Fold MarR family transcriptional regulator.
Amino acid sequence: MKEILREIGMIARALDSISNIEFKEFDLTKGQYLYLVRICEYPGIIQEKLAEMIKVDRSTAARAIKKLEISGFIEKKEDQHNKKIKKLFATEKGKYIYPFIKKEHDYSNSVALEGFSEKEAEAIFNFLQRIRKNIEKDWEFVKKGNRRNY
C-alpha cells in the first residue's frame, strides 16, 4: 500500500515550518496562526469547538489560546446568556494580521496545486476530505479513551 499518510505528514510539516518562519515577524509562535485564522473566520467560536476543528486536545488548545490572548491577538468575551461560556474574538491586532496569513495560505495552496487541472484539484480535495472523515472516526474513538485494534 502507498504511504499516503507519510506524504500528507511531510506536506503538513513543510507548510507548518514555512508558516512558522514567515509569521515570526508578527510574533506568532508555532502553530498559533491556525487558531487565529479559525477565530477570525468564526468570530465567537468557543474553545472546545476550535480544538475540535484543529484536531487537538483541549489542553493544547487552551495553551495556544492563552498565548494568543496574552499577545493581544484575541480576546475572550462572556456569553450573554451563559456566563460560563467564553467566546473567542480576534482583536484589532489579530484582524490586522489575518489577511497576511490568508494570503500565505492562498499562495501555498496555489503552489501545491501547480500543474494540476481544476478537475484534478477537485478530485484531490474530495479524496482528502474522505480520508479526513475516515480518520476522524478513529480520532473520536481514541479521544474518548478507547484503543484501536491494529
